[in-house]
Amino acid sequence: MLMNISEIINEVRKVLDEKDEVREKALRLTRDIVRLSGDCIKALHRGDLRIAEKRLEVAKNLVNELKEMLTEHKDLYFTGYVQNAHQEYVEANLFYHYLLDKEFPHPKEIEVPETAYALGIGDFIGELRRYFLNLLLNDKIEKAQEVYAFMEKLYDELATLEYPKGLVNIRQKQDQARYILERTLEDLTRAKINKNLEKKLEEWRNEP
User: Fold this and answer.
1) What pLDDT is stored for residue 198 in this prediction?
2) What is the pLDDT, as a whole number, of residue 156?
3) Helix spans in the chain (H)
4) Cys-Cys link to 52, which of 32, 43, 106, 161 (CB 3.0-4.6 A)?
């Protein structure tokens, strides 16, 4: 009987050793995907489209490699660190397509699960706020207003996803997005008031 359990444990060990090796490789890939996605977003904010596209292309290859590697390890594919990498990749993709005025990619097109895509939309709203603030700093209020209007529509769409936390933790992203939207509206309103005040002061100075 003891020999029997020893043989079983040896088989279990082989499986777990293999899974542990795959996990380590997957962790390295996910770290690279997160880094490349972040670099892509930073490049987009700088207006460096060439670097952004290069980083996004490398990240795409790693996402595909990760999916292929974990084909036989679905339990690892749906872990938190893989989902986080997918979210970052989705965020970079959506921001890239928005700035270039392209159709947004479907989850299947960029090889990510629908749950990660939904969470990535929440992060995308946060990135749009950064873009919005940069526009305000450069006194591009009309363009900033367009960005806010898009953020508002995007949030309305995101808010239609109502699912239990056990399936996808979307409520947290929705709450964050709503808070971001409220702050963005306050910033826009303040900027428009200041702009109108400047205009009236200028008119007053130029009165004969």
Assistant:
1) 59
2) 95
3) 2-46, 49-69, 74-77, 80-99, 114-137, 141-158, 170-205
4) 43
The CATH number of 1-112, from 3.30.70.20, 3.30.300.30, 1.20.58.2140, 1.10.3720.10, is 1.20.58.2140
Average pLDDT over residues 113-134: 95
Q: Find the angle CA(86)-CA(88)-CA(89) to the nearest 5 degrees.
A: 60
Name the residue with higher pLDDT: 185 or 19.
Answer: 185
* Mean pLDDT, all residues of the chain: 91
Q: Which tokens hold the place of 157?
A: 């769409």
Taking the CA of residue 184 as centre, how many other CA atoms within 13 Å lie in the half-sphere pointing to its CB?
A: 28
Given 3.30.750.24, 3.60.10.10, 1.20.58.2140, 3.10.129.10, which CATH number is that of 113-208? 1.20.58.2140
pLDDT confidence of residue 191: 87
Please report, for the chain, the start and end positions of each structural domain, with discontinuous segments joined by +: 1-112, 113-208
User: For residues 75 and 89, what is the distance between their CA atoms, to the nearest angstrom?
Assistant: 20
Q: Provide the sign of the torsion angle of the four alpha carbons 148, 152, 153, 157, taken in this order.
A: positive
CB atoms within 10 A of CB 151: 22
Length reported for the chain:
208
Q: Please check whether residue 72 is in contact with residue 39, taking contact to mean a CB–CB distance below 8 angstroms.
A: no
Q: What is the pTM of this model?
A: 0.88
Looking at residues 151-155, what average pLDDT do you find? 96
